[in-house]
Amino acid sequence: MGLNYRSLTGFSEQVSNLDLKKYWYKSTPNSTCYKIPYQDSYLFIKVLEVPDKVTLMDDEQLLNICRSRNSNMLTHHDFIIGEEISDFGSVVKRVMVITDFVHNTDFFNTITYLHANQQDLLAFIDSLIHSYNVMHSDDILHKDVNINNIGFKKVKGKIEPIILDLNIYEFTSGGSIFTTPEFIDPDLDDFTNYSIVNERWAIGVLIYYIYTFNFPFYNRINNYKKFNIEDLMSLRYDLLPDKYSELIKLFFRLSI
Q1: Which of 8, 29, 235, 251 satisfies CB 3.0 to 4.6 Å to 200 for a cystine?
Q2: What is the pLDDT of residues 4-17, one digit of tens each?
Q3: Of 75, 67, 123, which Cα lies nearest the Cα of 99?
């Protein structure tokens, strides 16, 4: 990566001699991604520029993600943290995230396919809930639960979820918010206080959406309307199996 960088696990040495530019995959406004061959599959490398007002997780938190043995969470091989001199002479902070590559990230087609067989859909949601529970038991919060951060794999003919793209930034007072509006707990007034309670709210939104293809409260257009208890009371809980409707009520901190 250039000037003053460090690898947290040493895995990066296995790919350090590759010319990443040959394996460009896609770019976004604040990241560049690469897909490189590795053993009998691929690695996914994302290089992120760390904004000035954002703090990266500390080394131990990042290593905790790498140590995870959650079979439904994307495998993280290494975090490489460093600084580079830009063309304008300023120092740019970057983090390189090395993970496995996920081939299927087509949320709508995959969930629609699962809807054709209710038992497969129920098994998928059960697996998704379990995988978040395992993450939380390992003291890992995703911090950006949403439909774009779910991938898919086939295990013994069944579709299983893969939890993608953990938010590796710490929320700081006055800093930017890196999360998805439709999934924000309305009781969260300061992201520096983000906790498992707020994450469970987002998981409740995700489950509701997977089952109904509707956001329970609002969408990107009218997201900032005043939220009130009637929004919770008016949801179509009857559209979901009892075990999920009760779980969602629990995550929404509601007794009906």
Answers
A1: 251
A2: 789 999 998 877 77
A3: 75
For the segment 182-206, what is each residue's pLDDT rounded down to a tens digit?
888 888 777 778 899 999 999 999 9
Nearest Cα to 56, choosing from 79, 75, 28? 79
Query: CA–CA separation, 160 vs 51, rounded Å?
Result: 34
CB 205 within 8 A of CB 180: no
Task: Read off the amino acid at residue 201.
Answer: W
Does the predicted TM-score (pTM) go above 0.85?
yes
CA of residue 151 relative to chain centroid, distance: 10
- Which residues, 6 or more positions from 207, have their beta carbon under 8 angstroms from its beta carbon? 125, 128, 129, 240, 244, 247, 248
pLDDT of 2 reads 54
For residue 37, count CB atoms less than 10 angstroms from its CB and return exposed for 0-12, middle for 13-18, buried for 19 or more: exposed
